[in-house]
User: What shape does this take?
Amino acid sequence: MDEPLLVICPDCGTTMKVERATGAVLSHDAASAKRKLGSLEEAAAEIARRKERAQDLFAATVEREKHKSEILEQTFKEALEKAQKDPGRPRNPLDDL
Assistant: This one.
């Protein structure tokens, strides 16, 4: 019988025991306590850092969505051209069974 795998999250410090064969989480121990901010200035700096990170993530997501529509449009054009070249019935993968 295999021993469960012990996984520690590098970000939050949470410890999980995971079954090796199935990958199921057997137990979950939350991290003891997050680091508390020492002063009001540190808290304000942390809030500003989080706000800037959120804005960067949002901008990246918007940019990704712009390119996503272009990729989908190009894929559709290619499929349409392929369908116009070969007007026959599409191959059914279940026919091979």
User: Anything to note?
Assistant: The chain is about 45% helix and 15% strand. The two ends are 39 Å apart (CA to CA). The first strand starts at residue 5 and ends at 8. The mean pLDDT is 84.
